[in-house]
Write a structure and sequence with these properties.
Elements (H helix, E strand, L loop, with lengths): L14 H16 L14 E5 L5 H6 L6 E5 L6 H8 L4 E4 L13 E2 L4 E5 L5 E5 L5
Parallel strand pairs: 1-2, 2-3
Antiparallel strand pairs: 4-5, 5-6
Length: about 130
């Protein structure tokens, strides 16, 4: 994707922002660190958690994902995220509330599963994939 049209928002306004922009450019566009384990393919549905200004989502749009859901809690970065993804199959989400897990501590395993024990002794699990 052409970065000339990418809106960096607040990251162009200060030295701290420019440093942040440099790191994101290095991680996302130059080294594609978020696709080291799973590369986005055409038709994929992608969940971008902590989307910031949309750099990762922007970097994969040329791969033609079916849809991208971008979750970003920062009210400062959210308008920039929208401007970078408008016209694409992207749904920006300002905040997300996960219910049902309450205060129970989840267990994380090496194979990417998150589990928790519920009241009846049964275990629930959620499969997650990350580039970490």
């Amino acid at each position: 994707m052409n970065l000339e049209n990418f809106n960096w928002g607040w990251m162009n306004d200060s030295e701290e922002g420019l440093v942040h922009k440099h790191h994101i450019t290095f991680e996302t566009f130059e080294h594609k660190m978020y696709e080291k384990v799973f590369e986005v393919e055409e038709g994929d549905i992608v969940l971008d958690i902590g989307a910031s200004v949309g750099s990762f989502t922007y970097s994969i749009l040329d791969k033609k994902p079916k849809h991208v859901y971008c979750i970003e809690p920062s009210e400062l970065e959210f308008p920039t995220l929208i401007s970078n993804t408008i016209g694409y199959p992207v749904t920006p989400i300002l905040k997300i509330k996960v219910t049902g897990w309450g205060l129970m501590s989840p267990n994380f395993s090496d194979d990417g599963k998150v589990t928790r024990e519920v009241n009846n002794g049964k275990r629930e699990s959620l499969q997650i994939s990350t580039g970490i």
